[in-house]
């Protein structure tokens, strides 16, 4: 098999034989558990391994990967047919699982060791419902359709989950707000979801007090999850919950809740304005929770996540996914590269979740003799760079990696079920029938899709970069944002391939190869244009990360007076004990990057800011550009004459601005 085909049942060399057998075996699609035994028996692996690579390469990509594609589509159909419609709401799912296995651990706090079983979570959430429900004569008076905002730090994750399930028992909708936002963005987050209640971590007192007058004026009732309150106008809630009965809450309380009812609001990152509340109905929660099952996670697995619960990956995939499967989720209050493997050994973790740079942070820790001493067999996530993927497997062992693509509000997703290193997913003609999408030509200058004479968008070819758009159908709906029809409309593209069709604009630039593997290129806004060429920041970051004295790299484009487009700049963090070597970096860039993609400015930083989902932040860096008055750290400029990066001086800065130095 090819080097990238890790963990697949059968590689491309089996395609020739199996395509002949495929029509006779289509009836097996609903029973994918047969495939791991059936395919090897039919395919004669000992013979297929000896087929020349050239034979397999003579078949088109869709045919070459037909066995794996059929097996995956069969698994998808099986999962959805068996599980679809099982529960009208995520609360009904909790209640059913609690009745069946009340003693089964649902979630464990990795920091404190606190363990909560399905039965205890159900009982505690009943107390929350009785304390906060008007129909149950509680203190707050929430009812079906009301919205409550949760504002919690990571260490209080289990408490926040209990509140979420309890509010769900009342038929209330829950807005999960990042604990990192403050001031106007925080006020906007609470109000844009239509919240009538804010329940906050007492550790976030200062943030709450800053916006309390505005919340009070808007009629939003505020609580701390504590026994006392140091803030006038904010009530304590803990004792009310403790005093409430844990008797089951009647289903009639939320009689109007269906699978299509809004349930949760998860916010966008806010990189293009204030965070927007993305609507999750119960059906979408349930379908997202099936990600673990789709990635071959089983009931006896133990899942580990260190991502924040206000992020869909942790809440929907890990927590709701563990609930759907009946397995246990280990919840770390925050990510710690030095502690993750110790936690995995302690709790016998078999599945870990990653996102963004998490696995790179693990690779950057000092090597230990126990690096492979663990039971982790799967890693599920997104944003894994190709070079980190290889390093991670070499160091920590043959862990099956499921790279998954998706966005908070998107209607399209992919899974790299083959395991090809570097790909964010795999598609096929069969999958495209279920979830239709296109990669279309995009103009980086106008930031709009390119259309032909008939006004239709133009699909890109294999290997070309295009904007990912997903067609909106009954099977792939786009629910949009709460209370913002204008923002929702901005994410739609109409008349894409034919009159009247509607697609979701992902804002992501991808490419696809002839075999159907998809590769992430960049995000619109991160990609910039210089010297008439498009520069993908992610690609440049990947190249620079191999420089031996650079620990972290964040690439972005900055405007230069009198020049079209933006020029490349990189904020970097040096490896401990290493010094910046401008001459060495210049020589490396000359060999590894085209001239238009080379960063012309290097900014040395002690640390690089990341979001709560471990993505590098660029907006403030872009705004500061190469302005010496705004940058206290060392700043270097590429100098082709001397063949090095030399310190940027005030005289050089003025010369760039007045055009004396041309870049």
UniProtKB/TrEMBL annotation:
Residues 94-425 form the AMP-dependent synthetase/ligase domain. Gene3D superfamilies: 3.30.300.30, N-terminal domain of ligase-like (3.40.50.12780). The keyword Transmembrane helix applies. GO terms for molecular function: cholate-CoA ligase activity; long-chain fatty acid transmembrane transporter activity; long-chain fatty acid-CoA ligase activity; nucleotide binding; very long-chain fatty acid-CoA ligase activity. Its main location: membrane. Its EC number is 6.2.1.3. InterPro entries: AMP-bd_C, AMP-bd_C_sf, AMP-binding_CS, AMP-dep_synth/lig_dom, ANL_N_sf. It catalyses: a long-chain fatty acid + ATP + CoA = a long-chain fatty acyl-CoA + AMP + diphosphate; a very long-chain fatty acid + ATP + CoA = a very long-chain fatty acyl-CoA + AMP + diphosphate; tetracosanoate + ATP + CoA = tetracosanoyl-CoA + AMP + diphosphate. It is an enzyme of class 6 (ligase). Keywords: Cell membrane, Fatty acid metabolism, Ligase, Lipid metabolism, Lipid transport, Membrane, Nucleotide-binding, Transmembrane, Transmembrane helix, Transport. One of its GO terms (biological process) is bile acid biosynthetic process. It comes from the Eukaryota. It is found in: Cell membrane. GO terms for cellular component: endoplasmic reticulum membrane; plasma membrane. Pfam families: AMP-binding, AMP-binding_C. It is a multi-pass membrane protein. Residues 539-615 form the AMP-binding enzyme C-terminal domain. The keyword Transmembrane helix applies. Belongs to the ATP-dependent AMP-binding enzyme family. This is long-chain-fatty-acid--CoA ligase. The lineage of its organism: Eukaryota, Metazoa, Chordata, Craniata, Vertebrata. The gene is SLC27A5.
């Amino acid at each position: 098999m090819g080097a990238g085909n890790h963990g697949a049942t059968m590689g491309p060399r089996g395609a020739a034989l199996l395509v002949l057998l495929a029509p006779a075996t289509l009836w097996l699609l609903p029973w994918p558990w047969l495939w791991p035994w059936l395919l090897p028996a039919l395919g004669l692996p000992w013979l297929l391994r000896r087929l020349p690579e050239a034979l397999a390469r003579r078949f088109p990509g869709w045919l070459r990967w037909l066995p794996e594609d059929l097996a995956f589509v069969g698994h998808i159909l099986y999962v959805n047919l068996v599980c679809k419609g099982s529960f009208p709401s995520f609360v009904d799912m909790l209640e059913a699982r609690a009745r069946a296995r009340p003693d089964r651990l649902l979630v464990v706090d990795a920091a404190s060791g606190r363990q909560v079983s399905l039965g205890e979570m159900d009982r505690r959430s009943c107390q929350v419902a009785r304390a906060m429900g008007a129909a149950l004569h509680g203190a707050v008076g929430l009812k079906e359709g009301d919205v409550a905002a949760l504002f919690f730090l990571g260490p209080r994750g289990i408490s926040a989950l209990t509140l979420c399930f309890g509010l769900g028992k009342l038929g209330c909708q829950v807005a999960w707000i990042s604990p990192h936002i403050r001031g106007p963005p925080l006020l906007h987050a609470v109000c844009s979801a239509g919240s009538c209640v804010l329940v906050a971590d007492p550790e976030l007192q200062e943030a709450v007090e800053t916006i309390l007058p505005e919340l009070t004026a808007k009629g939003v009732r505020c609580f701390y999850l504590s026994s006392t309150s140091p803030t006038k106008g904010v009530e304590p809630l803990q004792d009310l919950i403790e005093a409430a009965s844990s008797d089951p809450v009647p289903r009639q309380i939320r009689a109007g809740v269906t699978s299509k009812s809004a349930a949760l609001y998860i916010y966008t990152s806010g990189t293009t304005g204030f965070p927007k509340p993305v609507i999750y109905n119960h059906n979408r929660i349930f379908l997202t929770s099936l990600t673990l099952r789709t990635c071959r996670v089983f009931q006896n697995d133990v899942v580990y996540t260190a991502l924040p619960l206000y992020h869909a990956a942790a809440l929907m995939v890990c927590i709701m996914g563990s609930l759907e499967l009946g397995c246990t989720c280990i919840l770390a209050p925050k990510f710690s590269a030095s502690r993750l493997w110790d936690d995995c050994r302690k709790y016998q973790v078999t599945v870990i979740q990653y996102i963004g740079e998490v696995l790179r942070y693990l690779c950057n820790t000092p090597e230990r003799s126990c690096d492979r001493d663990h039971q982790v067999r799967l890693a599920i996530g997104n944003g894994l760079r190709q070079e980190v993927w290889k390093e991670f497997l070499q160091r920590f062992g043959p862990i099956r990696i499921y790279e998954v693509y998706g966005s908070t509000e998107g209607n399209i997703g992919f899974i790299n079920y083959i395991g090809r290193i570097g790909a964010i997913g795999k598609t096929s003609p069969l999958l495209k029938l279920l979830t239709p999408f296109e990669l279309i030509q995009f103009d980086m200058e106008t930031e709009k899709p390119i259309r032909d004479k008939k006004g239709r968008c133009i699909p890109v070819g294999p290997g070309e970069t295009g904007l990912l758009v997903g067609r909106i159908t009954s099977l792939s709906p786009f629910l949009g944002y709460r209370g913002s029809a204008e923002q929702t409309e901005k994410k739609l593209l109409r008349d894409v391939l034919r009159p009247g069709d509607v697609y979701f604009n992902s804002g992501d630039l991808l490419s696809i190869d002839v075999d159907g593997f998809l590769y992430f290129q960049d995000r619109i806004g991160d990609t910039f244009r210089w010297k008439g060429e498009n520069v993908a920041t992610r690609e440049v970051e990947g190249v620079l990360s191999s420089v031996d004295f650079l620990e972290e790299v964040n690439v972005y484009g900055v405007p230069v007076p009198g020049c079209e487009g933006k020029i490349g700049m990189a904020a970097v963090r040096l490896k401990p004990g290493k010094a910046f070597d401008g001459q060495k970096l210049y020589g490396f860039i000359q060999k590894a990057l085209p001239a238009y993609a080379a960063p012309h400015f290097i900014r040395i930083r002690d640390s690089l800011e990341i979001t709560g989902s471990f993505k590098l932040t660029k907006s403030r860096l872009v705004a500061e550009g190469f302005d010496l008055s705004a940058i206290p750290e060392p700043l270097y400029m590429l100098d082709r004459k001397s063949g090095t990066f030399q310190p940027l001086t005030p005289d050089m800065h003025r010369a760039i601005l007045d055009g004396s130095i041309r870049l």
